[in-house]
Write a structure and sequence with these properties.
By secondary structure, the chain is α+β, with helices and mostly antiparallel strands. Helix 2 crosses helix 4. The chain starts with a helix and ends in a 21-residue tail after the last helix.
């Protein structure tokens, strides 16, 4: 089928539809030590997220009425050296989300330090075996 450009120009109307919603659910993963207070850690994370100027509260009015948390935080794993927490942080787009996560890591680290919440790091013990000749 061949359609002349003149017909297309007169007959076709092009409408550009942008994406209606580009909001992004960013995941903030943080490990805390097994002896740290999980409830306090979750409160610190929640307070940091809700205080951030670019955070978006994605709850519906019904969810707000039912008491759904503004920031959902889940325990995702018991890793070898940490209890892994994941906070779901909404932003208007991916670039803003990356900045929010960076800001939150700084704020949360400072608050964890001030409140005795430990972010563990893995350690490794190396044992050097002696040879039979003593060397």
């Amino acid at each position: 089928v061949v359609i002349p450009n003149g017909v297309l120009d007169k007959e076709m109307v092009l409408t550009s539809h942008g994406l209606p919603d580009q909001s992004v659910n960013n995941q903030l993963n943080i490990g805390i030590s097994f002896d740290s207070d999980i409830d306090l850690a979750k409160k610190i994370i929640t307070d940091a997220v809700t205080a951030h100027k670019d955070h978006i509260d994605m709850r519906s009015e019904q969810e707000k009425k039912n008491g759904a948390p503004e920031v959902l935080i889940r325990i995702t794993d018991f890793a070898p050296s940490a209890v892994m927490l994941r906070a779901f942080v909404w932003s208007k787009d991916l670039v803003t989300g990356n900045q929010i996560l960076s800001d939150l890591r700084y704020t949360i680290k400072k608050q964890f330090d001030a409140n005795g919440i430990v972010i563990p790091y893995q350690t490794q013990t190396v044992v050097l075996a002696e040879k039979e000749d003593g060397k």
